[in-house]
Amino acid sequence: MPETSRDLQLTADGELRHFLAIEGLGQALLTRILDTADSFIEVGERTIKKVPLLRGRTVVNLFFEPSTRTRSTFELAAKRLSADVLNLDIGTSATSKGESLSDTLLNLRAMASDMFVMRHSQSGAPHFVAQSVTPDVAIINAGDGRHEHPTQAMLDMLTIRQHMKTFSGLRVAIVGDVQHSRVARSQIRALNTLGVDEVRLIAPDTLLPHEPEALGARVFHRMEEGLRNVDVIIMLRLQHERMEGALLPSESEFYRMYGLTREKLAYANPGALVMHPGPINRGVEIESAVADGPQSVILGQVTNGIAVRMAVMSMSMGGQLNERQSGTGEGVAST
Amino acid sequence: MQDIEQLLDRMTDDLRAHINARGLSSLCPVGIRTGGVWVAQALRERLGIQTECGELDITFYRDDFSRIGLHPRVSPSRLPFETEGQHLLLVDDVIMSGRTIRAAMNELFDYGRPESITLAALVDLGRRELPIQPDVTGTHETLGPRQRIKLRGPETLELAVEEVPDA
Amino acid sequence: MKWRVDNVHPVIDGEPAAEATSVLVVDGRITALGADLSGERVEREVDGAGQWLLPGLIDLNCHLPEPGSDRGGSIESETRAAARGGFTTVCTTPDTSPVNDSGAVTHLIRDVAARNGHTRVLPVGALTRGLEGERLSDMVGLTRAGCVALGNGGHATASSRVLRRCMAYAHTFDIRLFLQPENASLASDGCAHDGLVAARLGLPGIPEVAETTAVNELLMLAEETGANLHLGPLSCARSVALVRAAKEAGHSVTAEVGIAHLVATEAAIEGYNGTFHSRPPLRTEADRRALLEGVESGVIDAIVSQHRPSDKAAKLAPFPETQPGLSTVESTLSLGLERVAAGELSRGALLRSLTSGPARVLGLEAPAIAEDAVADLTLVAPEQHWTPAVRSLYSAGPHLPVMERELPGVVMLTAVDGRIRHEHGGDGS
């Protein structure tokens, strides 16, 4: 039987060794990621923004789906950890079959890679690699299909914690295309694990999974009801393809029903945080006045993004190395 | 174990002598978490230094990362002053192998190039593995193979020798 | 060849007889049954004490990967596995490579099966050319070449108009149709049951309606055209209900379910376990229960292996890219017996759905342990156990629903046409 996500991601001591999904990780570990990220934020303010943790290690950015933005953040994070970075953009056309995926990765491992940062269009692809192809290379999921995008979610959690100080008592609404969103799946899990009061999904049925409650959230169809008493609003990005797939009539109708305008924002608690993973479609998901308004934290997440990625990369690398060394570690640190 | 107040007094005297001999002005104190910060604060008060105490968390600079991974508890380092061109007073509670000091100095240099670094340690256990020596030391101690020393604080500082539990 | 089984309990209509007896086989037929046949001089005596003698099991849905690539087995390897599983007859699906849409391919399959096969092999031909759902195959030519039925091989026929014409044409020549119900546009790029697990794992789902709308459509078209329709494998409770209603209304439809759907649910794909990637997808526990109930009540006529051997590499990929299907033909009977032991299914219903049920679907007379019956026989030790493990499997496909766990029921001997084709502990040939 394949291992569960939890078994696969953690060492026998409960340390991170791959970072594949939020599902399966406990509150203490998520909190540690956030704490570690806080320390990396401080590192980013120094003259020299680099720490030697991953010196001599090779990190390969494997993007089977293009994303310049996410890839650059990972690249910067790896470089700030002093790792050597190799960027590979492998178009979806070049290799999509499992066999060649395995071959590609085995070749890269032979080049003494220590970590794969992987984005893939198929749900579960990083899980498959960690389990069956290169279990001794730390795998960081940079987004798989519509499954999870755990580093993006942790960055959002860091932002929420910076503004709200705590997760308990919070009501969080996630608005838009939940069905196709890997970010949403990770966010829902992270929010629930970190102990918010309630996670709400606001979307039409076509943009929700068949059994949305399975994700651990309460479903609303209308903004007026879903945003009531909410402390944080997370707007998801709407892909243009959704119109072609007959999931929505038009962008303008989506905006009318689910776009975050000043008027709809008023339903939420005063001072509610407005978040968006970006890039924003103004006038589709969100009104410019809201996006640029005082409650919006859409910009200024870049620092957090690098810090969170540095945290999960160093923690996973540490777990991997620890596991490779297991039995030889001395236990008592020299002073 | 000796009285900490006496040790701190002696260190203060030795530091004054060191400062005078070297002609150092305005030392900026930096303690290594956790015990080193307490000692640094105590020395700062005794020396009448105005500058606030800096706090270093050396987790990201440890040379045992590849053996034991990232330490579970890390909090941001905090240096409330510019280090560039400054005379720094680096303080730790215990010095043994010298690796912590090396990590701390690597970290300090990422903030800028200090003019000088003076090293002070409350307890020197010997057994050095790197060519690093404190300028000022409170006391020298020798421990048994299964013993370690720990500074308790921060209200009242107290040194305690503990038995290391069998692995 | 003349041989005899002694002290054995013949299974009649799914029930082992209380009295043990001896069965004499001469030249492919059962020639005598009786308490004492020891006077007969035979070449082989088999002690059947504590064992059941069943009419040979019949599998209506078994993929034999020949013609095809040489990965994932051959007619030889997979019929050897089938004989070990107690099957004496397997119907092989049309989705070979090339597709079995011409008499030439049918002849090829039959020739290889006659030469290398360990069971009877009854080819099911393709309903449309290349299984593309556009042009009719040479239906009469295929049946004359030896196809017992024509089917879609799990490839949904997208056009209802083509489907209606296939049925009308098949009806004209009294050709049996084996159709797996799936609405292609509703199934779309799905790879798992559109439910709790797929929602969590972020896998594109195949909704239940992808099957039920197709069942409805096929039932309506068969009713109108008079086609002889066999449906399956079914995967959900509502499909069972639809077939039940059709049968109660007097339609002559029959149906099958794959063994995997009786033993596993969507929970099996947790952790992106590609072994359980199957088509139709494994659904909920309620569906599994309803399928078992369908077998029990006879709404579902046959349990099939839906055996689809695939080599290791075919499952070594991200879940959506793994090849659907499990390797089941060696363990179908044992998995069924395990359900019987669990109290989920009666022994009679299980054994009927592997013998008389599929025989009825094929229009064969009810198989029996009786004088003058063809000696397709399966000898089973119900109290013995075995443990499937990759090294000891006959099938080239290592993806079983159960591995490294003990299963009840060991097939001691399988005889086809009086010839012993598998013997437990022997080399099987």
From TrEMBL, chain A:
Positions that bind carbamoyl phosphate: R69, T70, R119, H149, Q152, G278, P279
Domain called Aspartate/ornithine carbamoyltransferase Asp/Orn-binding: residue spans: 169-315
EC number assigned by the record: 2.1.3.2
GO biological process, alphabetically ordered: 'de novo' pyrimidine nucleobase biosynthetic process; 'de novo' UMP biosynthetic process; amino acid metabolic process
Sequence ranges assigned to domain Aspartate/ornithine carbamoyltransferase carbamoyl-P binding in this UniProt record: 17-162
Top EC class, one word: transferase
Gene Ontology cellular component annotations, sorted alphabetically: cytosol
Reaction(s) the record says it catalyses: carbamoyl phosphate + L-aspartate = N-carbamoyl-L-aspartate + phosphate + H(+)
Annotated binding of L-aspartate, by residue: K97, R182, R237
SUPFAM superfamilies given in the database record: Aspartate/ornithine carbamoyltransferase
Keywords noted in UniProt: Pyrimidine biosynthesis, Transferase
NCBIfam families hit by this protein: asp_carb_tr (TIGR00670), PRK00856.1 (NF002032)
Protein purpose: Catalyzes the condensation of carbamoyl phosphate and aspartate to form carbamoyl aspartate and inorganic phosphate, the committed step in the de novo pyrimidine nucleotide biosynthesis pathway.
Quaternary context: Heterododecamer (2C3:3R2) of six catalytic PyrB chains organized as two trimers (C3), and six regulatory PyrI chains organized as three dimers (R2).
HAMAP family (alphabetical): Asp_carb_tr
Protein name listed in UniProt: Aspartate carbamoyltransferase
Taxonomic path: Bacteria, Pseudomonadati, Pseudomonadota, Gammaproteobacteria, Oceanospirillales
Automatic annotation (TrEMBL), chain C:
Matches recorded under InterPro entries: DHOase, DHOase/Allantoinase_Hydrolase, DHOase_cat, Metal-dep_hydrolase_composite, Metal_Hydrolase
Domain named Dihydroorotase catalytic: residues: 50-233
Key words, A-Z: Pyrimidine biosynthesis
UniProt keyword Iron-sulfur, yes or no: no
Presence of keyword Ribosomal protein: no
Classification via Gene3D superfamilies: Metal-dependent hydrolases, Urease, subunit C, domain 1
Protein name: Dihydroorotase
Phylogenetic placement of the source organism: Bacteria, Pseudomonadati, Pseudomonadota, Gammaproteobacteria, Oceanospirillales
SUPFAM superfamilies given in the database record: Composite domain of metallo-dependent hydrolases, Metallo-dependent hydrolases
GO molecular function term, any single one: metal ion binding
GO cellular component, one term: cytoplasm
Entry's Gene Ontology BP terms: purine nucleobase catabolic process; pyrimidine nucleotide biosynthetic process
A Pfam family per the record: DHOase
